[in-house]
């Protein structure tokens, strides 16, 4: 476990590559099972902190609200093809998402200009 944790920490191995190594042919490796149990323990510790600390809960909920607002705007802007990517290629997905973020970032100044024009007396 230490060898794989070190590789993950140093970035010399991808998480997916390590997982694939342990789950070949639907036979789970004992190290994989140990990592799964460690993950459960870490999650339980975090949940205990979350339930005990009001400030942590508020911080997480505020962050989630920001993300949900961003995703709602993304869904509105990315309306073509019901929000589905047209390609299965990772590069095409990346270009689509970058274009989407560019459009979203341009909407703020455009909205400001529209409000400025609408506020002028006729």
Description:
This protein has 122 residues and is mainly α. It has one domain (2-88). The protein contains five helices and no strands. The chain has helices at residues 2-10, 15-22, 30-52, 54-77, 90-119. The longest helix is centred in the C-terminal third of the chain and has 30 residues, at 90-119. The radius of gyration is 22 Å and the shape is flat. One of its GO terms (biological process) is DNA transposition. This is Transposase, TnpA family. InterPro entries: Tn3_Tnp_DDE_dom. It holds the Pfam family DDE_Tnp_Tn3.
Using only C-alpha atoms, the radius of gyration works out to 22 Å
**Tally of structural domains:** 1
Order of helices and strands: HHHHH
The outline comes out as flat
Can you give the mean pLDDT? 82
Low-confidence stretches: none
> How much of the sequence is in beta strands?
under 5%
**Number of helical segments with 4 or more residues:** 5
GO biological process, one term: DNA transposition
GO molecular function, one term: transposase activity
Protein name: Transposase, TnpA family
InterPro entries: Tn3_Tnp_DDE_dom
């Amino acid at each position: 476990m230490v060898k794989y944790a070190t590789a993950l920490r140093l970035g010399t191995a991808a998480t997916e590559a390590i997982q694939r190594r342990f789950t070949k042919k639907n036979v789970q490796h004992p190290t994989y099972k140990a990592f799964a149990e460690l993950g459960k323990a870490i999650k339980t510790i975090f949940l205990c902190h979350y339930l005990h600390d009001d400030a942590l809960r508020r911080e997480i909920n505020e962050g989630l609200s920001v993300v949900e607002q961003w995703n709602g705007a993304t869904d509105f802007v990315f309306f073509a093809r019901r929000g589905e990517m047209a390609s299965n290629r990772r590069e095409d997905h990346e270009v689509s998402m970058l274009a989407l973020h560019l459009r979203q970032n341009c909407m703020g100044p455009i909205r400001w200009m529209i409000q400025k024009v609408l506020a002028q007396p006729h």
